[in-house]
Specification:
disordered N terminus, alpha/beta, two-stranded antiparallel sheet, single chain, 11 strands, five-stranded parallel β-sheet, 13 helices
Length: about 325
């Protein structure tokens, strides 16, 4: 199948599809100029944006988590704000607050950093649970409620959060409900020795984010999200996704398997991944490609599994091997 089969979904605009696919390729290309990370990781971050989801980057210090988040925002050309999470951060520091105006004798709302297109929540696990929960409504419903008044957030809206998994003092682990809001959890890892040596020469005296060109804007990103939504999904693919998440729910090593929201996110990410690959339909290979990064962080392991060193990724990969993929 190719772009000519766009008739499979009458809602798919061929020109919008081509433009979105081209934009995705451009974003991956310019991200590579500032972020020394595998291209698959960069493509996954772009796919997460095009799926309309939120991104969690979990890795050790110094590998470029914040650089990736800032570079993605710069390449997208959207409004961006940063929230440096600390234990004394208040929910109103995220959502905004009403301030009394003595001249007009009225309360004026001053929006918080969440009123943006891309919000970087740096070291999110350093914020208190009360402040972490302030992001729940915005991440799921694209709105915030302050003093009983609900305000819509700009579109597109994306939260990119970073987290350090090796430091526990002064941190608050994200609860399952918060983790389930993130469409994708990725890590960057250490670069190969040769690539790291090149990085030292290329970026030692430069700001890596400044090396990233702006290739998008709010309108183009919004169009790309619509294009990804219109990618065709055969009913057998939807059932394939359901069978995978059902397999995790039946795994006795888990306290909690993948939720229906997780299944929906797998499909959305598979659509965006297909679009990046210039394919206007979702195949089993797209589901297999995104499933570990979408599902692993949502699974709650039992105590025996944790002691045995079994990870969420192990469980998802076993599910992918156990469930038969449909033939398209």
């Amino acid at each position: 199948m190719d772009v000519a089969t766009a008739r499979m979904n009458p809602d798919l605009d061929a020109q919008r599809f081509e433009q979105a696919s081209h934009l995705a390729g451009e974003m991956v290309r310019v991200l590579a100029d500032g972020v020394r990370a595998p291209l698959d990781t960069l493509a996954a971050a772009v796919a997460c944006m095009f799926s309309g989801g939120h991104l969690l980057i979990e890795d050790v210090p110094g590998v470029g988590k914040t650089v990736l988040a800032k570079s993605l925002a710069r390449a997208a050309g959207c409004h961006y704000s940063r929230l440096q999470c600390t234990s004394d951060l208040l929910p109103s520091d995220v959502t905004g607050v009403h301030v009394y105006d003595q001249r007009n004798q009225t309360f004026e709302f001053r929006p918080g950093p969440v009123f943006t297109n891309i919000l970087l929540a740096d070291e999110i696990n350093r914020a208190s649970p009360k402040t972490q929960s302030a992001l729940l409504e915005s991440m799921e419903e694209h709105q915030v409620t302050v003093d009983g008044q609900t305000r819509q957030l700009p579109r597109p809206f994306m939260v990119i959060a970073t987290m350090n998994p090796v430091e526990y003092e002064g941190t608050f682990p994200l609860p399952e409900a918060q983790l389930d809001r993130f469409a994708l959890a990725i890590s960057i890892g250490y670069p190969p020795a040769e690539a790291e040596a090149d990085m030292l020469l290329d970026l030692a005296d430069k700001d890596p984010v400044a090396q990233v060109d702006v290739v998008g804007d709010e309108l183009r990103i919004a169009d790309a999200i619509l294009a990804a939504e219109s990618v065709y999904v055969d009913p057998s693919i939807a059932r394939y996704v359901v069978d995978i998440v059902t397999n995790t729910r039946q795994d006795r090593r888990l306290v909690l398997g993948a939720s229906p929201r997780a299944a929906l996110t797998v499909l959305r990410m598979a659509k965006a991944t297909a679009l990046i690959g210039k394919c206007n339909y979702v195949g089993p290979e797209h589901v297999k490609h995104v499933a570990p990064a979408v599902l692993a962080h949502r699974l709650v392991m039992g105590s025996e599994a944790r002691v045995s060193g079994i990870t969420g990724s192990d469980v998802v990969n076993e599910a992918l091997r156990a469930v038969r993929a449909p033939a398209l």
